[in-house]
Amino acid sequence: MSDFEWGEPACPPHVRPLRERVSAFVRDRIVPHEDTFDSGGRRARDLTERLGRQARTEGLWGLALPRDLGGAGLSLLEYAHVAEAEGASDHGPAVLGGSALLDLVTLAGHDAYREQVADGRLSLCNAMTEPGTSGSDPALTTTRATREPDGSWTLRGGKWFVSGVAGAGLAAVLARTAGAPPDKNGLSVLLVSPSSPGFRVVRELPVLGAGGQWEIALDGVRVPADHLAGEEGEGLRVVARRVRLSRLLRCLRWLGQAERAFTLMCGRARDRRTATGRLADHQLVQQLVFDALLAIRTTRPLVFEAVARLDAGLDARTETGLAKVAAARMLRQVTDAAIQVHGAEGLGPDTALPRLFRTGRTAGILDGPDELHITATARRVLRDGPGRFGGSAEVALPEAAANERKAGDAGSGVSTGAHRERAEPPEPARRRH
């Protein structure tokens, strides 16, 4: 078998059965309940827990985790093929434990919490963005953590677009422990229990009709001294570690959702007849199908190249910027085309297309808006010269990875099982979560 399929690494034989089983689980167990998930609240949380237990029983939960934490021990590049299948539904990662990998990155150094995340007893929500400030510039953070005489912290401020706060056991809160805006060096991430006095849910913030995002207030919340993620003042590094991985996982999931929309579009074109024949026989419909397929096929290699570089411990910032923008645009294009082929039915509740289109529209904002990635990537290339950005052959060459590490642009690494991540200087990007 070739090592590559359509421009990206082929799914390894030992991963292929897992991908197929995950795909079937998402299709048969998760997709039929997407309306319940989207409604949020207790019913959605109970459903997530129930299906999560089924996934554990069938050996499909937490496949991204290392073996010593009960996972499959897959490398990031191997897991990428599974993540695409998980992401065919927006709710797949939460049910199947894919989100736990990101929580482990945030909790590096907190072994007790890591074990609880790995067995599904604990999940995190991330409180980064604040009302009234630019969500893409964490240097403007005003939420403040004040050190008390006993070493603990007192938090005051507010956050919004916090996902999953209702069922989270901990909130990772970006707060200012020194300095004032726009100082980037005085930020830290504190691990806060949502049950703490002063932690208040202000309101739910539906996103294009879907629940699950919240605004919170932090009114004098006390946080133990040892509840820092990373070191004091290293908040941007903690956020950057998670966001770099989160962006690529999102790209993989968007590929899965685009494939789902593309399948619906092709089925509609083949089956729907008009007075002049099948939709599939109309050239303008064929154009929509071609353009959607082209978008998927050209985006996937960009995403897998970025994953391969990150998995190899190489600088993947430029590749991630390209992949993030390409994947967001691709999902918007494919879902829009699928709706067009379905006509009015594509706007209603009888297909998944409105839900997939909603994800496509938010894709250009989540984990940093497209404009930020475009600007940062272009500046980096113009500063450093085109160099390696003209090709991707070195991703497959071990000696290239070794040479790049020797060049000295690799910082200290953070390892989550088989997933290696470089501590690169963080970029000013903030999650919309």
Automatic annotation (TrEMBL):
Residues 125-213 form the Acyl-CoA oxidase/dehydrogenase middle domain. Its cofactor is FAD. GO terms for cellular component: cytoplasm. The keyword Flavoprotein applies. Residues 131-144 have a biased composition (Polar residues). InterPro entries: Acyl-CoA_dehydrogenase (IPR050741), Acyl-CoA_Oxase/DH_mid-dom (IPR006091), Acyl-CoA_Oxase/DH_mid-dom_sf (IPR046373), AcylCo_DH-like_C (IPR036250), AcylCo_DH/oxidase_C (IPR009075), AcylCoA_DH/ox_N (IPR013786), AcylCoA_DH/ox_N_sf (IPR037069), AcylCoA_DH/oxidase_NM_dom_sf (IPR009100). Residues 418-433 have a biased composition (Basic and acidic residues). Pfam families: Acyl-CoA_dh_1 (PF00441), Acyl-CoA_dh_M (PF02770), Acyl-CoA_dh_N (PF02771). One of its GO terms (biological process) is fatty acid beta-oxidation using acyl-CoA dehydrogenase. Homodimer. Belongs to the acyl-CoA dehydrogenase family. This is Acyl-CoA dehydrogenase. It comes from Sphaerisporangium rufum. The lineage of its organism: Bacteria, Bacillati, Actinomycetota, Actinomycetes, Streptosporangiales.
